[in-house]
Amino acid sequence: MDMGIKGRWALVCGASKGLGLGCARALALEGVHVVMVARGADVLQQAATALRTDPALPAGTQVVAVAADITSPEGRAAAFAAHADYDIVITNAGGPPPGDFRDWDRDVWIRAVDANMLTPIELIKATVDGMAARGFGRIVNITSGAVKSPIDTLGLSNGARSGLTGFVAGVARSSRLAAVNVTINNLLPGAFDTERLRGTMGGVAKKTGQTLEAVIDARRKLVPAQRLGQPDEFGATCLFLCSAHASYITGQNILIDGGAYSGTF
What mean pLDDT value characterizes the chain? Predict the structure, then answer.
């Protein structure tokens, strides 16, 4: 299927690895020019080089790497210096650490809200009016399955990402955006085989005295699909939401978790 977005420009945050890289790869292989942003310069350059040299990359597709912290004003300025008018924006920032809410002071909460709620809002604010003027725009926020089914130790993520979810629910339904082909949706990943998940599972293994493999296997067995998700399949879902075919989907929270969430709604 032709996604109808070849030649458009996308900003993908947290694009050096994991789910962000899966989204950047899916878009670039569809012929979308991609600006990849991440903090780690070396890993980012390696990822961008691999994508530029991928034989499946359509001729003329640009892949630009910007090593910057997208949660800072300077990082966002660097992203917009690389390209000014984005048609597609994928917001993504590493989730805050797990822990006990009794240990979190105001500064810890502010950092979580700044990265996982206010930064996506700043990116939305910076791009939606230009998208509306051009008659096309797609914004996809990578949040978390914990928004749908909260996890007690992920209180910082539950709170900050839920705040973003509420904001998007309102702004995405503005006729100034939805009526002119600008959509905003959230993708909620469950258990995906990423470095972050393995890091979290490594902490569990250390606390419980189990091997990392045993902890991951136990997590896998909780998923009806009996496996962890892969970044490329997450990227494929993101690609569809960014496509010309998804113009009637906005303000939605799309859970990708292999059936792990057991609720009806």
Answer: 95
